[in-house]
DNA sequence: AGCGTTCTTGACTACATCGTCCATAAGCTC
DNA sequence: GAGCTTATGGACGATGTAGTCAAGAACGCT
């Protein structure tokens, strides 16, 4: 019994995410989302509740994807390549942030716009940042085991700093800083990591 | 001849800024600004043009103030206190960013929301960041002269990194990271600056 | 095939919002 | 104080927006 849904939930959520991403929460109307997804407003409200609930859903999925991406780029069995993974992760990000067509990071935009007014968003943002920091810390510990980073340094502290640099690169990139500068900043940050004493 | 304005322009702009600051550009209605400033909408439109023009005006003033504040905190004749000024500037920022009641940095919020859709805002944001970087670089050069930082290092590169950390602290603070963590990150960044060889 | 359940559509409501307009008030100059 | 110019404030129009609703369509089970 029952009529099954006609739409692909994932596709609809992606389209909704793109709309919110482009114009922010306050700047996006449900009519725009209906047009972007191809759904009627009734279906939209029936399936997802309302604007806020839909956004929470979209945002949550995006945070999960962000953590997944960091994990994929930074995890590995091979301690000898841990520093290489770290460099790649940060440099990729620097280059991506410099693309003029880039719409910036949804996580950053959302945190800036909504964290103050929406506790659900605030909590999810913080948790996402903490997760990324843990992933960075795990990679840094691998770097320490391999002798790329001073084992006496606090991996958590260094991971927090690198996360900060990561977020700062995002901010500068959004303002229009060019790619070579962003990569140079990343390199300077990596150069500042403590080396093991010889 | 002519009737002079009844309102204090500066006060009105401050009130408008606070509204935009609290609820963003898209999230702020002109009615809300009229209520916050006490002006009728006719006066508001007559004096400032429209929502976008008013925002540009407010934003421009805010950027000027931001640069002025950095200048005040980081400039000085005394090279011996340059490193102290730098530490103070960054630590103050870290503590300020951790205040739960803090509404975040208007510059950061605006960059995140509008830079993609508004060239005037994008250009002003970039120019503001560049100015702050120059101020940081000048202070770092003083640190180099005084022997606190390796004179062989590029002051511009280090300034760019510190600006990045500054913006990253802002982002993490908005997400809810606590004060001690933000100060620790700042300290880690300062510890990573190259010391002059002895 | 018939039935019940759920999905879909888009018109509809009620209100918010941008920006305009105009009658009126308030100086300034002579 | 007369007359001019400009500021003021709030009503107004047109459009935008969040969310609802009812009529009908699509599907699976019997």
UniProtKB/TrEMBL annotation, chains A, B:
Q: Mind telling me which InterPro entries this protein's record contains?
A: DNA-bd_HTH_TetR-type_CS, Homeodomain-like_sf, HTH_TetR, Tet_transcr_reg_TetR-rel_C_sf, TetR_C
**Highest taxon, organism lineage:** Bacteria
Family annotation (Pfam families) = TetR_C_13 (PF16925), TetR_N (PF00440)
Residue ranges of domain HTH tetR-type in the record? 6-66
Keywords in alphabetical order, please.
Answer: DNA-binding, Transcription, Transcription regulation
Q: Which residue ranges does the Swiss-Prot or TrEMBL entry mark as DNA-binding?
A: 29-48
Output the PANTHER family linked to this UniProt entry. Answer: HTH-TYPE TRANSCRIPTIONAL REGULATOR YJDC (PTHR47506:SF1), TRANSCRIPTIONAL REGULATORY PROTEIN (PTHR47506)
Name the record gives this protein: TetR/AcrR family transcriptional regulator
Upper classification of the source organism reads: Bacteria, Bacillati, Actinomycetota, Actinomycetes, Kineosporiales
């Amino acid at each position: 019994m029952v009529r099954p849904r006609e739409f692909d939930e994932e596709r609809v959520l992606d389209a909704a995410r793109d709309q919110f991403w482009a114009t922010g929460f306050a700047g996006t109307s449900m009519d725009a989302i209906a047009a972007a997804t191809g759904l009627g407003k009734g279906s939209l409200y029936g399936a997802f509740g309302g604007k806020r609930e839909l956004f929470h859903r979209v945002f949550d999925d995006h945070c999960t994807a962000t953590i997944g991406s960091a994990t994929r780029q930074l995890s590995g069995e091979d301690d000898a390549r841990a520093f290489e993974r770290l460099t790649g992760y940060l440099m990729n990000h620097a280059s991506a942030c410099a693309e003029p067509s880039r719409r910036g990071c949804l996580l950053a935009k959302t945190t800036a716009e909504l964290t103050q007014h929406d506790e659900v968003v605030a909590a999810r943002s913080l948790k996402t940042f903490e997760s990324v920091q843990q992933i960075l810390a795990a990679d840094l510990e691998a770097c320490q085991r391999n002798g790329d980073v001073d084992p006496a340094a606090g991996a958590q502290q260094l991971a927090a700093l690198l996360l900060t640099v990561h977020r700062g690169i995002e901010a500068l990139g959004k303002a229009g800083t060019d790619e070579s500068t962003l990569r140079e900043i990343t390199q300077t940050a990596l150069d500042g990591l403590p080396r093991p004493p010889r």
